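Action item from last meeting closed. Structure (318 res):
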């Protein structure tokens, strides 16, 4: 089975102070509207930035210096900076800009590749975004669904899913919380995409690498929900077990440890690959993981790995 994996910097303050209390049923139904509005604007920013990446691909396709798995279907937005710290800072610049400001940043990134590209590359604007209200519904829908499941659980009532089926609200909540949480946060601050079985906790296990990686299970993402609903059997993973799952987690304090471990063990992790091109794929995955960790360090956040947050073949991009 194929995997579209992703690597994410996670703002744990937003998780603990905003999103989890909302899902837990506290506050009002409108309490996340500011984050949802920001996510709608970021969707437009990402769409425009991705259009620049596609335009660069049209101009430079086949050029050995242009890696589409990094610049188009890898990093968020359109980023060609080289060091992890420069990449993280550029991601934040995009994340703070409006759709009207994207072109200025994208042209800067083009000039880092080759100054002669400026004026030659234009954004590929094929396709359109749906109206804002539909984008907002796509961003908020699953989080709202979990909030409704919590209400049913507290009231000891059955729960009706959007497709009309009756379900146990506790099972809905416990089986989906981490994925829904990371998917929602990815609309606020996007992550990195990589295709294949190349996420860090799997590489760690495959290589049998010794030393503390800083990666642990993702139970920290449950936050207050564990104490609110102690009887539920929460799905907690150390690694990605299947599609549409969240895997390993590095706490904010452990992010520097994980970066150091990756740098020290990179050759061992690459050597664990068993396919002809696996070494290059693993090196690219390690680079993307380190860049996501650099962003996590930059925002004082955590790191998680996940699968199918993005599915490029279906048009779901970062």
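Sequence:
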């Amino acid at each position: 089975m194929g995997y579209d994996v992703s690597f994410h910097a996670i703002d744990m303050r937003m998780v603990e102070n905003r999103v989890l209390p909302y899902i837990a049923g506290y506050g009002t139904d409108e309490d996340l509207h500011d984050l949802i509005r920001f996510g709608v604007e970021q969707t437009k920013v990402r769409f425009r930035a991705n259009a620049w990446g596609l335009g660069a691909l049209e101009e430079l396709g086949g050029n050995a210096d242009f890696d589409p798995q990094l610049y188009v279907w890898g990093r968020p937005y359109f980023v060609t900076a080289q060091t992890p710290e420069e990449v993280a800072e550029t991601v934040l610049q995009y994340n703070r800009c409006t759709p009207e400001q994207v072109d200025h940043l994208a042209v800067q990134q083009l000039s880092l590749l080759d100054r002669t590209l400026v004026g030659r590359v234009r954004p590929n604007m094929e396709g359109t975004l749906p109206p804002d209200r539909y984008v907002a519904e796509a961003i908020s829908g699953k989080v709202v669904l979990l909030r409704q499941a919590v209400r049913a659980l507290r009231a000891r009532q059955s729960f009706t899913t959007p497709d009309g089926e009756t379900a146990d609200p506790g099972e809905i909540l416990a089986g989906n919380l981490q994925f829904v949480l990371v998917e929602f946060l990815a609309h606020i601050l996007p992550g990195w995409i990589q295709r294949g079985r190349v996420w860090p906790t799997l590489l760690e296990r495959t290589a049998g690498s010794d030393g503390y990686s800083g990666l642990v299970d993702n139970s920290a993402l449950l936050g207050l929900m564990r104490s609110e609903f102690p009887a539920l059997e929460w799905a907690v993973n150390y690694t990605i077990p299947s599609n549409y799952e969240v895997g390993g987690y590095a706490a904010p304090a452990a992010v520097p440890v994980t970066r150091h471990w990756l740098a020290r063990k990179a050759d061992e992790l690459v050597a664990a690959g068993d396919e002809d091109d696996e070494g290059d794929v693993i090196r690219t995955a390690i680079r993307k993981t380190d860049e996501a960790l650099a962003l996590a360090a930059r925002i004082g956040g955590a790191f998680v790995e996940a699968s199918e947050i993005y599915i490029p073949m279906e048009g779901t991009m970062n």
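Note appended to the action item: The CA atoms of residues 62 and 138 lie 35 Å apart.
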